[in-house]
Write a sequence for this structure.
């Protein structure tokens, strides 16, 4: 990595960790494109998974009192299964088709949220969770689908962030294991993660502090802002 780019990368890492801790997800929205630009697509996506996975360990600790293991168990298992399939087999639909499907899913979920059709949201969570893991396995980010899958569990703000943190953790660790075995991740990447540890600690607790202060309505706004950010990124790739 060019030493001149290191401050930019560290700034992106810190911003990604704060956003991820505040909203429960969204770190890949910043981190994946930044690292892909600096390191190349495959290496950037792999390193992003490693960094986000390590950061999710810190997030899970920070939200340890509000981790809904039972309610989120199915979603978490399906995210991990999808991530394994996507990362191992590298099988995907054409990128344009995946992009359109994710955007349509976002629009439908927003409509269900607006109309408060809770039963439909819950019924769709398992399907979205599996799709989230699979898309994450070959694109490096599952933000929109993962957010929709966990949102469908109808949890309060802190438990929602806890569930997102758990789902993100298992997904990123699954991808990291697969890509380490495929030699996409090296000892140097692990050293980068170790160097970023102070950022993980500081940014995670800063993000959690922000989350506890904004209330349910503020968090709903933050959640859909992150979703719009993902959708804008997808639209830009069409």
């Amino acid at each position: 990595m060019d030493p001149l780019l290191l401050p930019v990368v560290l700034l992106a890492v810190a911003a990604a960790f704060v956003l991820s801790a505040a909203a429960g997800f969204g770190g890949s929205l910043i981190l994946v494109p930044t690292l892909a630009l600096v390191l190349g697509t495959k290496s950037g996506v792999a390193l992003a998974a490693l960094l986000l996975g390590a950061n999710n360990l810190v997030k899970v600790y920070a939200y340890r009192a509000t981790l809904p293991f039972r309610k989120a168990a199915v979603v978490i298992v399906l995210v991990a299964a999808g991530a394994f399939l996507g990362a191992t087999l590298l099988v995907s639909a054409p990128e344009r088709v995946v992009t359109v499907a994710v955007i349509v899913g976002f629009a439908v979920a927003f409509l269900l949220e607006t109309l408060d059709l809770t039963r439909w949201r819950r019924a769709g969570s398992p399907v979205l969770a599996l799709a989230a893991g699979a898309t994450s396995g070959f694109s490096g980010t599952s933000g929109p689908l993962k957010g929709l899958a966990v949102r469908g569990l109808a949890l309060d703000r802190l438990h929602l962030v806890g569930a997102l943190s758990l789902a993100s953790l298992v997904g990123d660790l699954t991808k990291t294991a697969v890509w380490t075995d495929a030699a996409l991740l090296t000892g140097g990447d692990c050293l980068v993660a170790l160097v970023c540890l102070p950022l993980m600690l500081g940014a995670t607790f800063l993000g959690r502090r922000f989350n506890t202060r904004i209330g349910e309505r503020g968090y709903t706004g933050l959640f859909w802002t992150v979703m719009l950010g993902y959708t804008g990124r997808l639209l830009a790739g069409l």
User: Anything to note?
Assistant: The longest helix spans residues 197-236. The chain has a mean pLDDT of 78. The radius of gyration is 16 Å.
